[in-house]
Design a protein that fits this description.
seven-stranded mixed beta sheet; four-stranded parallel beta sheet; 26 helices; RNA-binding
RNA sequence: GCCGAGAUGGCGAAAUUGGCAACCGCAACUGAUUCAAAAUCAGUCGUCCGCAAGGACUUGAGGGUUCGACUCCCUCUCUCGGCACCA
């Protein structure tokens, strides 16, 4: 008998499938429903690691299963090609980011193919292609048109290493999520998308989508809705008013002072001359603080008095106005009424600066009273920030705007898209707050299309997350030159039926994609307002030592090496088998031999049994039916680990029995989504089938064969199992009682005792209470 | 501090409406095969007592509900993830 040689058969079938275009999805197939199966596209880092495998292999099992179930499955793939990491890596190697990115794409494609994933490469989307980013720019223009894209001077997170502004979502613990450098606050004119306008819609939409509850909670917390009131405070000897947001208007009688954020616009207007020096001093100091320093100083409150006073609208009392950086400029109104008796932070501040703390009775009615007097209104605040999309970097889609000396800021006309990213000599970020594109004079200087006068292009590029916020739409119609996607193709494929990817994108990509979808829906470009009907996450694969795999730790497992040793089918299947998909887990280098042995046994079984198929065996049919039911249900629910376990059990049970050809076929079909190469080889070469096993129908179980006529009934005494008796299905209680009590084992316990209660759970268990 | 997830043999884990805890696999051990090793095959494998039959105990800790709890409720411990001066 020939030995199982995965390397040989895997390459062979991968080529064959490609040649036959087995996984290319047609937009319409008669009698088949379309199913859009999407796995997050990779960013072309150069190497495919185990994490990619864990994302794509089990996800592919699901796609293959759906295809066998008779759905017209589209499983597209592409590359998230623009962005900081690629650019940084290229600069480190002294390479053109484009050359670096595209050579990575080339090698990653090969590696992706080695997984044996049923991707439809004909729909490949690369976000750095002009054909693609033309439409990213178009989306920008649409947002600009309706006032959702704006440019303003804002204090934003500046990474001094990457030399660019970052969105709030890309800063973690005060550090750049890419390079871990401490982020500074910099005042720059930035383009941003007003995602805050959609805060409520983003919140509401969560109710109707099938996503992991934990991810919804992450998004809800990130959006951070809180209800309260905005209350106006009059300032002594001034026409200015201070508006504050509070969730506790009922505590207003205890408000003994006010605090403004240093950035608050009224600070300069109300500060008294005597305090001007100390206030300016304080403003200077806060400006220099990094986000990290602010976090570190949480415990120690700082602040200065402005010299001005306001009137508490409830008590009419005169209260001092202070400035402190514990009040955040971008939340609420950037000003608070301080109620030290009810708020820990206000208390700390009061104690440090000797301000009064007054305990009072809470007053539920004060808000409506203030409303009547026109001093308050009910309001909802969100923690969500607007999405800053300007990047002072080269490797991204240029923002399609022009600055004309006469006409001001004007958008590039749609017919002039795409604004091509020019070739450039020096990619390095300048660090001046301007993109290196600013140096490309013949690109920057343009004629204004309105007045033909001299104008300059916007030199910032867009955040990569803009590219990935809509890529799933393009797969439906990747070559369309006239539209980002045609109405017809949208109808064929969207929204995405299932989306599989990591949870780390919960408050970034997954939020942005929902936002862009909602905007496009709102303005009539889409007919659905949630992009991903169903979302599931894969867990994280850790190194054998339990740490995140990293080169510096030396715990990186190279998938290519494992594939060389065991074959891709084994790696696929082991990844499925190692535990619940959403948990991830440690890569145990020894454990993979378990599935490798299993596949060898399958190989040997089918090669040896081929000669002497016998007629069917009823008992075996039952065993098959149970397995068919369980495996199908498990894959449907992405419980790949128990599905593999069931396949192993099935093999254990059938291995030494006479098998009919139909039963062997069923077994191979059940295994096909997991081990596509091995099953194809056996299907075609041993069973001599003409067509691919991957075009076969998923075997449906016969429910009549699932229920046994005789069942094993557990007999317990006081909740402890004492015997198991064989009885006919659906036996009535009195007969069961009779049988149970006549068992020798049970008699031992019941002898001379009174039966207090007899509990019977049909077809499962009887419990005798003594 | 707030929000969330989790804790089951030496290890990964199973136990989808409360009903035989530990399926399936890894590792380990015993045996067969082999000159030998690998591979393969047959078996043992939660802990304790016992030659065995059998019995007792066991799902992070403690309590509760129930005929019956890994599963439900309360209290606590630890681990991981997210947010974090959000008024």
């Amino acid at each position: 008998m020939i030995k199982y040689n995965p390397q040989k058969i895997e390459k062979k079938w991968q080529k064959e499938w490609e040649k036959k275009k087995l996984y290319q999805a047609k937009d319409k197939v008669k009698g088949k429903k379309n199913f859009y199966h999407l796995t997050m596209f990779p960013y072309p880092s150069g190497d495919l690691h185990m994490g990619h495998w864990y994302n794509y292999a089990p996800s592919d099992v699901y796609a293959r299963f759906k295809r066998m179930q008779g759905l017209n499955v589209m499983s597209p793939i592409g590359f998230d090609a623009f962005g900081l990491p690629a650019e940084n890596a290229a600069i480190n190697r002294n390479l053109d980011p484009k050359i670096w990115t595209y050579s990575n794409i080339k090698s990653m494609k090969k590696q992706l193919d080695s997984i044996g994933v049923s991707f439809d490469w004909s729909r490949e989307v690369i976000t750095a292609e002009p054909d693609y980013y033309k439409w990213t720019q178009w989306i920008f223009l649409k947002l600009y048109e309706v006032g959702l894209a704006k440019k303003e001077k804002v204090l934003a997170n500046w990474c001094p290493h990457c030399k660019t502004i970052l969105a709030n979502e890309q800063v973690q613990d005060g550090r750049c999520e890419r390079c871990d450098t401490v982020v500074e606050q910099k005042l720059l004119e930035q383009w941003f998308f007003k995602i805050t306008d959609y805060a409520q819609k983003l919140l509401d939409g969560l109710e109707k989508i099938d996503w992991p509850e934990t991810t919804k909670i992450l998004q809800r917390n990130w959006i951070g809705r809180s209800e309260g009131a905005q209350i106006e405070f009059r300032i002594e000897n001034s026409e200015y008013r201070i508006k504050v947001f509070t969730t506790r208007p009922d505590t207003i009688f205890g408000a003994t002072f006010m605090v403004l954020a240093p950035e608050h616009e009224l600070v300069k207007k109300i500060t008294k001359d005597a305090q001007l020096g100390q206030v300016n001093n304080y403003l200077e100091k806060t400006k220099k603080k990094t986000e990290l320093e602010r976090i570190a100083e949480v415990k120690e409150k700082t602040g200065v008095f402005t010299g001005a006073y306001a009137f508490n609208p409830a008590t009419k009392e005169k209260i001092p106005i202070w400035i402190s950086d514990f009040v955040l400029p971008h939340y609420g109104t950037g000003a608070i009424m301080a109620v030290p008796a009810y708020d820990e932070r206000d208390l700390e501040f009061a104690e440090k600066f000797g301000l009064p703390v007054r305990k009072i009775d809470l007053d539920d009615k004060i808000l409506s009273e203030l409303e009547k007097r026109g001093l308050a209104e009910r309001k909802t605040s969100y923690r969500l920030h607007d999405w800053i999309i300007s990047r002072q970097r080269y490797w991204g889609a240029p923002i399609p705007m022009i600055y004309c000396q006469k006409c001001g800021i004007i958008p590039v006309r749609e017919k002039d898209l795409p604004v091509l990213l020019p070739k450039i000599k020096d990619y390095k970020p300048s660090g001046t707050g301007e993109s290196p594109l600013a140096e490309v004079k013949d690109w920057v200087n343009v004629k204004c299309w309105k007045c033909s006068g001299p104008a300059r292009r916007e030199t910032d590029t867009m955040d990569t997350f803009v590219d990935s916020a809509w890529y799933f739409l393009r797969y439906a119609d990747p070559k369309n030159k006239k539209e980002f996607v045609s109405k017809e193709k949208l109808k064929d494929w969207l929204p995405v039926d299932i989306y599989i990817g990591g949870q780390e994108h919960a408050t970034k990509h997954l939020l942005y994609a929902r936002f862009i979808t909602k905007v496009l829906y709102n303005y009539g470009y889409l007919n659905f307002n949630e992009p991903f009907v169903k979302m599931r996450h894969q867990g994280l694969i850790l190194g054998p030592d339990g740490n995140k795999m990293s080169k510096s730790r030396g715990n990186v497992i190279d998938p290519d090496e494992i594939v060389k040793k065991f074959g891709s089918d084994s790696v696929r299947m082991y990844l499925c088998f190692m535990g619940p998909y959403e948990n991830g887990g440690l890569w145990d280098p020894k454990a993979i031999v378990g599935v490798f042995r299993f596949l060898n046994r399958v190989w040997n079984l089918i090669n040896s049994k081929f000669q002497n198929f016998k007629t069917q065996n009823k008992e075996l049919d039952k065993i098959f039916n149970k397995a068919m039911k369980k495996i199908g249900e498990d894959i449907e629910n992405l419980r790949f680990n128990t599905a593999v376990s069931e396949l192993m059990k099935l093999l254990n049970e059938i291995e030494n029995k006479e098998l009919a050809k139909d039963q062997i076929k069923i077994f191979l079909k059940l295994l096909a989504p997991f081990a596509p190469h091995l099953t194809e080889e056996l299907w075609r070469e041993v069973l001599k089938n003409k067509k691919s096993i991957h075009l076969e129908k998923w075997p449906e179980y016969d429910s009549k064969l699932i229920e046994e006529e005789t069942i094993y009934l557990i007999v317990q005494i006081n909740g402890r199992t004492r015997d198991i008796i064989k009885v006919p299905r659906d036996l009535n209680e009195s007969r069961v009682r009779e049988l149970a009590l006549s068992s020798e084992k049970i008699k031992k316990y019941t002898a001379g005792k009174e039966i207090i209660k007899f509990i019977y759970i049909s077809n499962k268990l009887a419990n005798i209470v003594l």
